[in-house]
Amino acid sequence: MRVLVMGGTEFISLHLVRELLAGGHEITVFNRGKRAERLPDGVATIVGDRKDHAGLRDRLKGRRFDGVFDITYAPTLGEDVAALLAALEGQPHVIFISTGRVYDHNLPIPYPEDTPRSFYWGDYARHKIASEDLLFERHKTGGGPISIVRPTHVMGPLNTRNNETFFMDRIWRGRPVLVPGDGGWLRQFGHVEDLAVAMTAMLGNAKAYGRAYNVMGEDTVSQVGFVELIADVIGKPAALRHFDPALLKGFDKPGPVFGQNLVYDCHAVHTTTRLRQELGIRPRYTLHAALAQTWEWYQREKLVDRPLDFAFEDALLAKIGA
Protein backbone atom coordinates (compact mmCIF):
# COMPACT_ATOMS: atom_id res chain seq x y z
CA MET A 1 0.00 0.00 0.00
CA ARG A 2 0.99 3.63 -0.46
CA VAL A 3 1.25 5.02 3.07
CA LEU A 4 1.72 8.52 4.48
CA VAL A 5 3.20 8.82 7.96
CA MET A 6 2.85 12.17 9.70
CA GLY A 7 6.16 12.26 11.53
CA GLY A 8 8.42 9.34 10.77
CA THR A 9 11.73 10.16 12.47
CA GLU A 10 10.96 10.10 16.19
CA PHE A 11 10.23 7.27 18.61
CA ILE A 12 6.90 5.67 17.69
CA SER A 13 6.75 6.88 14.10
CA LEU A 14 10.27 5.66 13.27
CA HIS A 15 9.52 2.18 14.58
CA LEU A 16 6.30 2.26 12.56
CA VAL A 17 8.19 3.21 9.39
CA ARG A 18 10.53 0.26 9.91
CA GLU A 19 7.59 -2.13 10.41
CA LEU A 20 5.77 -0.80 7.34
CA LEU A 21 8.93 -1.23 5.25
CA ALA A 22 9.26 -4.81 6.47
CA GLY A 23 5.69 -5.35 5.25
CA GLY A 24 6.54 -4.15 1.75
CA HIS A 25 4.59 -0.88 1.86
CA GLU A 26 5.54 2.25 -0.10
CA ILE A 27 6.15 4.97 2.49
CA THR A 28 6.17 8.75 2.46
CA VAL A 29 6.78 10.74 5.63
CA PHE A 30 5.67 14.32 6.29
CA ASN A 31 7.78 16.22 8.80
CA ARG A 32 10.00 19.26 9.27
CA GLY A 33 13.08 17.48 7.94
CA LYS A 34 15.15 17.85 11.10
CA ARG A 35 16.12 14.16 11.49
CA ALA A 36 16.22 12.94 7.89
CA GLU A 37 19.36 10.88 8.60
CA ARG A 38 17.28 8.52 10.73
CA LEU A 39 15.07 7.38 7.86
CA PRO A 40 15.76 4.00 6.24
CA ASP A 41 16.55 3.88 2.54
CA GLY A 42 13.56 3.88 0.25
CA VAL A 43 11.40 6.25 2.31
CA ALA A 44 10.19 9.40 0.54
CA THR A 45 9.99 12.69 2.44
CA ILE A 46 7.71 15.71 2.24
CA VAL A 47 9.18 18.59 4.25
CA GLY A 48 6.68 20.89 5.89
CA ASP A 49 4.94 21.96 9.08
CA ARG A 50 1.53 20.39 9.59
CA LYS A 51 0.40 23.46 11.52
CA ASP A 52 0.84 25.47 8.31
CA HIS A 53 -2.51 24.35 6.91
CA ALA A 54 -2.15 26.05 3.54
CA GLY A 55 1.32 24.61 3.12
CA LEU A 56 0.07 21.17 4.12
CA ARG A 57 -2.66 21.32 1.50
CA ASP A 58 -0.21 22.45 -1.19
CA ARG A 59 2.34 19.76 -0.40
CA LEU A 60 -0.23 16.96 -0.44
CA LYS A 61 -1.99 18.18 -3.59
CA GLY A 62 -1.96 15.56 -6.32
CA ARG A 63 -0.72 12.81 -3.98
CA ARG A 64 -2.92 9.85 -3.20
CA PHE A 65 -2.41 7.37 -0.40
CA ASP A 66 -4.14 4.16 0.67
CA GLY A 67 -3.40 4.74 4.34
CA VAL A 68 -2.38 7.62 6.60
CA PHE A 69 -0.87 7.37 10.09
CA ASP A 70 -1.26 10.52 12.18
CA ILE A 71 1.23 10.30 15.03
CA THR A 72 2.69 13.76 15.60
CA TYR A 73 1.77 15.80 18.66
CA ALA A 74 3.29 19.27 18.97
CA PRO A 75 0.59 19.76 20.36
CA THR A 76 -1.72 18.75 17.55
CA LEU A 77 -5.15 20.38 17.87
CA GLY A 78 -8.45 19.23 16.43
CA GLU A 79 -8.14 21.96 13.80
CA ASP A 80 -4.79 20.47 12.70
CA VAL A 81 -6.35 17.06 12.24
CA ALA A 82 -9.25 18.66 10.34
CA ALA A 83 -6.74 20.38 8.04
CA LEU A 84 -5.03 17.07 7.33
CA LEU A 85 -8.32 15.35 6.55
CA ALA A 86 -9.28 18.19 4.20
CA ALA A 87 -5.93 17.98 2.41
CA LEU A 88 -6.13 14.24 1.72
CA GLU A 89 -7.24 13.18 -1.73
CA GLY A 90 -9.52 10.18 -2.05
CA GLN A 91 -10.59 8.25 1.04
CA PRO A 92 -7.50 6.68 2.60
CA HIS A 93 -7.70 4.71 5.81
CA VAL A 94 -6.63 7.17 8.54
CA ILE A 95 -5.12 5.63 11.68
CA PHE A 96 -4.83 8.16 14.48
CA ILE A 97 -2.58 7.70 17.49
CA SER A 98 -4.56 8.92 20.47
CA THR A 99 -3.92 7.99 24.11
CA GLY A 100 -5.31 6.08 27.07
CA ARG A 101 -5.47 9.45 28.80
CA VAL A 102 -8.73 10.27 27.04
CA TYR A 103 -10.47 8.14 29.68
CA ASP A 104 -11.96 9.50 32.89
CA HIS A 105 -9.38 8.36 35.43
CA ASN A 106 -11.75 9.11 38.28
CA LEU A 107 -13.47 5.85 37.33
CA PRO A 108 -12.45 2.39 38.60
CA ILE A 109 -9.90 0.42 36.61
CA PRO A 110 -9.53 -1.29 34.20
CA TYR A 111 -10.55 0.93 31.28
CA PRO A 112 -12.08 -0.74 28.21
CA GLU A 113 -12.57 1.29 25.03
CA ASP A 114 -16.15 2.25 25.91
CA THR A 115 -15.04 3.96 29.16
CA PRO A 116 -16.42 7.53 29.27
CA ARG A 117 -13.87 10.08 28.12
CA SER A 118 -13.12 13.25 30.05
CA PHE A 119 -10.69 16.13 30.38
CA TYR A 120 -9.12 14.60 33.50
CA TRP A 121 -5.70 15.07 31.86
CA GLY A 122 -6.34 18.67 30.84
CA ASP A 123 -5.49 20.08 27.44
CA TYR A 124 -3.71 16.92 26.31
CA ALA A 125 -6.92 14.92 26.69
CA ARG A 126 -8.99 17.79 25.27
CA HIS A 127 -6.91 17.91 22.08
CA LYS A 128 -6.95 14.14 21.62
CA ILE A 129 -10.70 13.87 22.21
CA ALA A 130 -11.40 16.68 19.75
CA SER A 131 -9.30 14.87 17.15
CA GLU A 132 -11.00 11.54 17.83
CA ASP A 133 -14.42 13.14 17.43
CA LEU A 134 -13.48 14.58 14.04
CA LEU A 135 -12.32 11.19 12.86
CA PHE A 136 -15.36 9.31 14.13
CA GLU A 137 -17.53 11.87 12.33
CA ARG A 138 -15.54 11.33 9.13
CA HIS A 139 -16.25 7.62 9.29
CA LYS A 140 -19.89 8.05 10.27
CA THR A 141 -20.63 10.41 7.38
CA GLY A 142 -18.90 8.29 4.75
CA GLY A 143 -15.79 10.45 4.47
CA GLY A 144 -13.49 7.46 4.68
CA PRO A 145 -12.39 4.73 7.09
CA ILE A 146 -10.60 5.55 10.34
CA SER A 147 -9.15 3.69 13.31
CA ILE A 148 -8.16 5.08 16.71
CA VAL A 149 -5.19 3.69 18.62
CA ARG A 150 -4.99 4.37 22.37
CA PRO A 151 -1.66 3.36 23.90
CA THR A 152 -0.56 3.99 27.45
CA HIS A 153 3.10 4.39 28.48
CA VAL A 154 5.09 3.33 25.41
CA MET A 155 8.61 2.11 26.10
CA GLY A 156 11.59 0.81 24.18
CA PRO A 157 14.65 2.04 22.23
CA LEU A 158 14.67 5.75 21.25
CA ASN A 159 11.97 6.59 23.80
CA THR A 160 11.47 10.34 23.99
CA ARG A 161 9.89 9.92 27.43
CA ASN A 162 12.60 9.47 30.04
CA ASN A 163 10.82 6.76 31.99
CA GLU A 164 12.61 3.41 31.94
CA THR A 165 16.00 4.97 31.17
CA PHE A 166 15.52 7.37 34.11
CA PHE A 167 15.75 4.43 36.50
CA MET A 168 18.49 2.67 34.53
CA ASP A 169 20.59 5.83 34.91
CA ARG A 170 20.29 5.71 38.69
CA ILE A 171 20.31 2.00 39.46
CA TRP A 172 23.34 1.37 37.23
CA ARG A 173 25.27 4.11 39.05
CA GLY A 174 24.25 2.81 42.47
CA ARG A 175 22.23 5.92 43.22
CA PRO A 176 19.02 5.86 45.28
CA VAL A 177 15.68 6.20 43.51
CA LEU A 178 13.42 8.86 45.02
CA VAL A 179 9.82 7.67 45.37
CA PRO A 180 7.08 10.27 45.89
CA GLY A 181 4.63 8.86 48.43
CA ASP A 182 4.04 5.14 48.69
CA GLY A 183 4.75 4.33 45.03
CA GLY A 184 1.74 2.04 44.90
CA TRP A 185 -0.17 3.44 41.92
CA LEU A 186 -0.59 0.86 39.19
CA ARG A 187 0.90 1.36 35.74
CA GLN A 188 0.76 -0.40 32.39
CA PHE A 189 3.35 -0.25 29.63
CA GLY A 190 3.64 -1.33 26.02
CA HIS A 191 6.69 -1.96 23.86
CA VAL A 192 7.02 0.33 20.86
CA GLU A 193 7.60 -2.57 18.47
CA ASP A 194 4.35 -4.21 19.57
CA LEU A 195 2.58 -0.90 18.97
CA ALA A 196 4.08 -0.63 15.48
CA VAL A 197 3.04 -4.21 14.66
CA ALA A 198 -0.52 -3.56 15.82
CA MET A 199 -0.86 -0.33 13.84
CA THR A 200 0.52 -1.96 10.69
CA ALA A 201 -1.91 -4.87 11.09
CA MET A 202 -4.85 -2.43 11.23
CA LEU A 203 -3.93 -0.84 7.90
CA GLY A 204 -6.62 -1.63 5.34
CA ASN A 205 -8.32 -4.10 7.69
CA ALA A 206 -12.08 -3.49 7.42
CA LYS A 207 -12.59 -5.01 10.87
CA ALA A 208 -10.71 -2.03 12.33
CA TYR A 209 -12.73 0.63 10.51
CA GLY A 210 -14.52 3.01 12.85
CA ARG A 211 -13.07 1.34 15.93
CA ALA A 212 -10.87 2.45 18.83
CA TYR A 213 -8.36 0.07 20.37
CA ASN A 214 -6.32 0.03 23.56
CA VAL A 215 -2.84 -1.10 22.53
CA MET A 216 -0.41 -1.98 25.31
CA GLY A 217 1.14 -4.89 27.18
CA GLU A 218 -0.72 -7.20 29.53
CA ASP A 219 1.45 -6.65 32.61
CA THR A 220 0.28 -4.36 35.39
CA VAL A 221 2.84 -3.17 37.91
CA SER A 222 3.06 -0.68 40.77
CA GLN A 223 5.42 2.28 40.54
CA VAL A 224 7.94 0.72 42.91
CA GLY A 225 7.42 -2.67 41.28
CA PHE A 226 8.48 -1.14 37.97
CA VAL A 227 11.70 0.16 39.54
CA GLU A 228 12.45 -3.19 41.13
CA LEU A 229 11.82 -5.02 37.86
CA ILE A 230 14.35 -2.76 36.13
CA ALA A 231 16.82 -3.49 38.94
CA ASP A 232 16.27 -7.21 38.36
CA VAL A 233 16.98 -6.81 34.63
CA ILE A 234 20.15 -4.81 35.32
CA GLY A 235 21.28 -7.19 38.04
CA LYS A 236 21.77 -4.51 40.69
CA PRO A 237 19.65 -3.69 43.75
CA ALA A 238 17.37 -0.67 43.81
CA ALA A 239 17.67 1.58 46.86
CA LEU A 240 14.26 3.23 47.27
CA ARG A 241 13.91 6.50 49.22
CA HIS A 242 10.30 7.46 49.86
CA PHE A 243 9.47 11.10 50.54
CA ASP A 244 6.50 13.40 50.93
CA PRO A 245 5.77 14.98 47.50
CA ALA A 246 4.90 18.23 49.29
CA LEU A 247 8.64 18.75 49.79
CA LEU A 248 8.95 19.53 46.08
CA LYS A 249 7.12 22.81 46.67
CA GLY A 250 10.08 24.01 48.70
CA PHE A 251 12.28 24.19 45.61
CA ASP A 252 12.13 27.09 43.16
CA LYS A 253 12.90 24.79 40.25
CA PRO A 254 12.37 21.15 41.26
CA GLY A 255 14.09 18.68 38.99
CA PRO A 256 12.60 15.50 37.55
CA VAL A 257 11.54 12.88 40.06
CA PHE A 258 10.53 9.34 39.20
CA GLY A 259 10.75 9.54 35.44
CA GLN A 260 9.15 12.05 33.14
CA ASN A 261 5.49 11.14 33.61
CA LEU A 262 5.05 8.30 36.09
CA VAL A 263 4.45 10.37 39.23
CA TYR A 264 0.72 11.07 38.89
CA ASP A 265 -1.57 9.88 41.68
CA CYS A 266 -4.09 7.56 40.05
CA HIS A 267 -4.13 4.07 38.57
CA ALA A 268 -3.86 3.59 34.80
CA VAL A 269 -4.83 0.06 33.74
CA HIS A 270 -6.62 -0.87 30.51
CA THR A 271 -8.13 -3.92 28.84
CA THR A 272 -6.92 -5.21 25.47
CA THR A 273 -9.74 -7.67 24.90
CA ARG A 274 -11.08 -5.84 21.83
CA LEU A 275 -7.70 -5.89 20.10
CA ARG A 276 -7.31 -9.61 20.74
CA GLN A 277 -10.84 -10.68 19.85
CA GLU A 278 -11.49 -8.46 16.84
CA LEU A 279 -8.06 -8.35 15.23
CA GLY A 280 -6.24 -11.32 16.77
CA ILE A 281 -3.36 -9.10 17.92
CA ARG A 282 -1.42 -9.77 21.10
CA PRO A 283 1.88 -8.34 22.38
CA ARG A 284 5.09 -10.24 21.79
CA TYR A 285 6.86 -8.61 24.75
CA THR A 286 6.18 -9.16 28.43
CA LEU A 287 7.20 -6.21 30.56
CA HIS A 288 10.33 -8.03 31.72
CA ALA A 289 11.32 -8.91 28.14
CA ALA A 290 10.63 -5.34 27.01
CA LEU A 291 12.86 -3.92 29.74
CA ALA A 292 15.60 -6.44 28.97
CA GLN A 293 15.58 -5.46 25.29
CA THR A 294 15.65 -1.76 26.19
CA TRP A 295 18.54 -2.35 28.61
CA GLU A 296 20.52 -4.05 25.83
CA TRP A 297 19.92 -1.04 23.59
CA TYR A 298 20.84 1.35 26.43
CA GLN A 299 24.20 -0.36 26.86
CA ARG A 300 24.84 -0.70 23.13
CA GLU A 301 24.28 3.04 22.65
CA LYS A 302 26.63 3.73 25.59
CA LEU A 303 23.95 5.60 27.50
CA VAL A 304 25.44 4.09 30.66
CA ASP A 305 28.15 6.73 30.30
CA ARG A 306 26.02 9.77 29.49
CA PRO A 307 26.59 12.83 31.68
CA LEU A 308 23.77 13.59 34.11
CA ASP A 309 23.12 16.28 36.68
CA PHE A 310 21.99 14.89 40.04
CA ALA A 311 22.27 18.16 41.98
CA PHE A 312 18.53 18.48 42.60
CA GLU A 313 18.21 14.89 43.78
CA ASP A 314 21.17 15.32 46.11
CA ALA A 315 19.52 18.42 47.59
CA LEU A 316 16.25 16.54 48.10
CA LEU A 317 18.04 13.56 49.62
CA ALA A 318 19.82 15.92 52.04
CA LYS A 319 16.48 17.42 53.02
CA ILE A 320 14.93 14.04 53.85
CA GLY A 321 18.09 12.88 55.59
CA ALA A 322 18.68 9.89 53.32
Protein architecture, described:
This protein is an alpha/beta fold and 322 residues long. Helices cover 34% and strands 17% of the residues. The protein has 10 helices and 12 strands. The chain has a 7-stranded parallel beta sheet with strand order 3-2-1-4-5-6-10, with helices on both faces. A 3-stranded mixed beta sheet has the order 7-9-11. Strand 4, helix 3 and strand 5 form a beta-alpha-beta unit. Helix 7 crosses helix 9. The longest helix has 18 residues. It is globular. The N and C termini lie far apart (57 Å). 41% of the residues are buried. The model has no long low-confidence stretch (mean pLDDT 95).
Strand arrangement, major sheet: 3-2-1-4-5-6-10
Based on CA atoms alone, the radius of gyration comes out at 20 Å
What structural class results from the helix and strand content? alpha/beta
General form:
globular
Helix content: 25-40%
The total of beta strands comes to 12
- State the low-pLDDT regions, or none: none
* SSE succession: EHEEHEHEHEEHEEHEEHEHHH
pLDDT averaged over residues:
95
Largest sheet: 7 strands, parallel
**Number of continuous helical runs:** 10
Percent strand? 15-25%
| N-to-C span | 57 Å
What's the short version?
The chain contains ten helices and twelve strands. It is α/β, with parallel strands linked by helices and 322 residues long.
Q: What labels describe this entry?
A:
12 strands, 322 residues, seven-stranded parallel β-sheet, three-stranded mixed β-sheet
Write the layout of secondary structure elements.
Elements: E1 2-6, H1 11-22, E2 26-31, E3 44-47, H2 53-60, E4 67-70, H3 78-87, E5 93-97, H4 123-140, E6 146-151, E7 153-155, H5 164-172, E8 177-180, E9 186-191, H6 192-202, E10 211-215, E11 220-222, H7 223-234, E12 240-243, H8 273-279, H9 287-300, H10 311-320
Parallel strand pairs: 1-2, 1-4, 2-3, 4-5, 5-6, 6-10, 7-9, 8-12
Antiparallel strand pairs: 9-11
